[in-house]
Amino acid sequence: MAKDDLASFVAGLPKAELHVHHVGSASPRIVAELAARHEGRSPVPADPALLAEYFTFTDFAHFVEVYLSVVDLIRDAEDVRTLTYGVARDLAAQQVRYAELTVTPYSSVNRGIPAEAFCEAIEDARIAAEKELGLVLRWCFDIPGEAGLPAAEQTLRIALDQRPDGLISFGLGGPEIGVPRPQFKPYFDAARAAGLHSVPHAGETTGAQTVWDALRDLGAERIGHGIFAAQDPELLAHLAEHAIPLEVCPTSNLRTRAVADLAEHPLAAIVAAGVPVSINSDDPPMFGTTLNNEYEVAARLLDLDTTGVADLARQAVHHSFAPAQVKSTLLTEIDTYTAS
Ligand SMILES: O=c1[nH]cnc2c1ncn2[C@@H]1O[C@H](CO)[C@@H](O)[C@H]1O
């Protein structure tokens, strides 16, 4: 179908976003504003026009280094509140009605923001976003893998002690190389025992074994990325049989150089194997994308018409941990949109 028709269909389509990072969603304007406050003390450019170049990554390790330099700019609870509400506004503007935002409390608490103030700030933004923007937000608290077991310990403690109302899941992000998943088992066990869903990253930068580990040791209910599962037919069959969805973020994989070219992206092979997927944006401004653009990319990779694209949006709702009422309202809204 024509590119413009697809773009306008996607832009108006009510959607759910299941894999998007908090700091990684900061708009260029907010990042530049924060950088200006720390000018001379931060490598992050204070001019939004220079950010695209700063956000050009040579590999995944470089991406994490740049990501943490932006995390460094967030110094107090007010920064967290402004950032979170700004992210909500950008999502709502794309007709996102429900989003699970991956938040890394360890990084902020470690930089001096008390856990309680941090949680209060994100909760304030969540409540305001629901009331003012019609966007339902939920949190995934993730362990930054590069910081190891102390980060796991502290992330779990913040999750269980603070237990903000919007918290629904427990994750694991950052690098996979040198960060084996099995060591995090006790923390995921405790988080799951406390009723949190398990949604670790795996198979983003390393192979199928990491995904197996996430399933067996961390009790993963969905996998962040998981694209290298495509290398293992047995794993694909397992994911399909147990209906474990992959949260796929195509442009992210291109920008971190996990795939050399979108033409080589395994999304189509994963879908062909019967594995459920959702389409997501990961760190949209850092990767020069938006959720709407990811739907367009996915439509091209999967050769979908508007009916197929609407089905992708429905899949994300089904795979979400949204309250039943939010799911049914959003599914009805998608039906109404596609019928009109
Ligand atoms: O695509 C991604 N994969 C893994 N971690 C990511 C990604 N995007 C953002 N983060 C974030 O990187 C930080 C360092 O571990 C974490 O805060 C994680 O949430």
Number of strands: 9
**Assembly state here?**
single chain
- Whole-number mean pLDDT: 97
The structure class reads alpha/beta
| Ligand roster | inosine
Level-1 CATH class name: Alpha Beta
Instruction: Describe the strand arrangement of the main beta sheet, using strand numbers.
Output: 1-2-3-4-5
InterPro entries: A/AMP_deam_AS (IPR006650), A_deaminase_dom (IPR001365), Ado/ade_deaminase (IPR006330), Metal_Hydrolase (IPR032466)
GO molecular function, one term: metal ion binding
Cofactor: Zn(2+)
Keywords: Hydrolase, Metal-binding, Zinc
Describe the overall structure.
The protein has a single domain (3-339), classed as TIM Barrel, CATH 3.20.20. The model has no long low-confidence stretch (mean pLDDT 97). It is of the alpha/beta class and 340 residues long. It has 16 helices and 9 strands. The structure holds inosine. Inosine is lined by residues 21, 24, 64, 67, 102, 104, 107, 142, 144-146, 173-174, 201, 204, 252, 282-283. It comes from Catellatospora methionotrophica. Residues 14-336 form the Adenosine deaminase domain. Its cofactor is Zn(2+). GO terms for molecular function: deaminase activity; hydrolase activity, acting on carbon-nitrogen (but not peptide) bonds, in cyclic amidines; metal ion binding.
